[in-house]
Amino acid sequence: MVSKRVVVSGAVQGVFFRDNCQREAESAGVAGWVTNRSDGAVEAVFEGEAEAVERLVAWSRSGPDQAEVADVSVNEQEPEGLSGFEVR
Length: 88
Hints:
Blueprint: E1 2-11, H1 17-28, E2 31-36, E3 42-48, H2 50-60, E4 68-77, E5 85-87
Parallel strand pairs: 2-5
Antiparallel strand pairs: 1-3, 1-4, 2-3
Helix pairs in contact: 1-2
């Protein structure tokens, strides 16, 4: 079990990034959350099996079709034992 906090910057709000992220996470069996930040970025925590979490990190580097991802920051953290995936 691993946990990663991801911050995605660029044109990533208003393009259904969070909804698509939730679908991708549920499809991969990854727990966590995703939210819009006041600075225009999207922040997410992905928690689960290493391969599944890496799948979500890789997806975040491009996001949905309408997104224009400029940068992705990834930091490992201690798993919290999250269940489900929520849009905040």
